[in-house]
Amino acid sequence: EPAPPRPKEELLRDAKHHDVPVRRKAVKGLGKHRDDDEAIQAIAVALGDEDVAVQLAAQYAMAKVADTGDERTVRATLDRVGSTCEWTRIAALATLADITGAFGHATRGGALDLEVDTAVAGRLEDEDWGVRRAAMDTLAQRAQHDCAETIAAARKLLEDQMGTVRESAIKAIASLVPTGSREAIDWVAPRLDDWHESVRRAAVVAIAKVAERGDQHAIELEKSACDDRSWIVPKAPPDSL
Fold first, then answer.
1. pLDDT band at 223 (very low <50, low <70, confident <90, very high)
2. Considering the entire predicted model, what is its pTM?
3. Which letter does DSSP use for residue 162 in this model?
4. With CB atoms counted within 10 Å of each terminal CB, which end of the chain scores lower, N or C?
């Protein structure tokens, strides 16, 4: 039988402690106080903590403290997406991916959910590359399969100045387009020559995921990537082709 949660007042106090491990443990513990408004607000504040370990604990706790799509957790997290601190914006976007339901969930499509869509999409052009990447990841996770708007957003970010954002865009396209989409393969193919090795790897993996088995065009593209000098880029076309 699981141990009962620590007293809420104790956790609320420790969530403001000067010591990072104490704050992290307290914030995580607040997630066990299900449906408690004070706990939800304290967890939301911790999304803006100066230490990433505490932010990750807050992200974990926010997903535990209430049901998926609960208006209180979604609203409290959404309020942090506009923070002046880029780390808080990243934490809030990542948390929204965890606490809102997938497309088709009973809580999707309402007024608050549409606010989430707008806020996440608005961060695709954030000045901070980490925020743009988090926005792309969250948008893709929440999107309907083959969602034209999300795919268009990902295509635009294929040209982002930061490699990790381009990598997220490639992964989003691969997760959303139908199997066998030749146009998606053509969108991703130029990234096989990207200067950033993790982008090249993501392109190889994406083409293998999207292509139909036996697609000669995809096989030729994958073979061309086998000459890549980087050890993280696959050295042979995957068995899926």
1. confident
2. 0.91
3. S
4. N
